[in-house]
Amino acid sequence: MASGSSTQAKPSRPRVPASERRDALIDAAIPEFARGGLHGTPVDRIAQRVGVAQPYVFSLFKSKRELFLAAVARGFQRVADDFTRAAEAFDPAIALPDTDVLTAMGKSYVELLDTDRDTLMLQHQAYAACDDEVIRERVRAEYARLVSHAQTLSGADDERIDDFFRYGMWLNVAAAMGVEGLSIGCEWVTAEHAADTEAGSDDAPAPAPEPDAGPAP
What we know:
By secondary structure, the chain is mostly helical. Helix content is about 65%, strand content about 0%.
């Protein structure tokens, strides 16, 4: 009988399907691209979030741009899903007067901006990356799909849908800056204007002295 203790084999880790890894990488990419954008986000940082090596990322996505586009598409889908939930939850029997499905969708979007900053900032990064023709075409398609989805859910006419998305963009900018609105009468705008005016008066050069007129005749 052989002496010595036998070495116990380590249990092998279950193999994660590539589809699950791909899905996890997209989720991990959203907060990274939301902060760093397409060009400022290292792929290895996204890989580290999932626990894989950078080369593995490129076995699932042809390029960083492809991963970025997948993250952008998921961001738009989050907004579309939020619209869907709001529309399905809307009950005209208990709704406030002068409100409808589109109103409910707008309110839900405001709440989304307050609770999911990554989705908000990823939208801005998507628009900022539109100098790339491929990205520009994909972002246009995602935006158009979202507009169509909102109109289908709400049944609103073209003019109301246009106003809805104009106001949504206004909300996006305000939320990105962390302010309550962009109107000239907003408290923060008034405060900034007052501060600029005060700073301007402090920095203004002193008036030039009157020229010496010489001795009086």
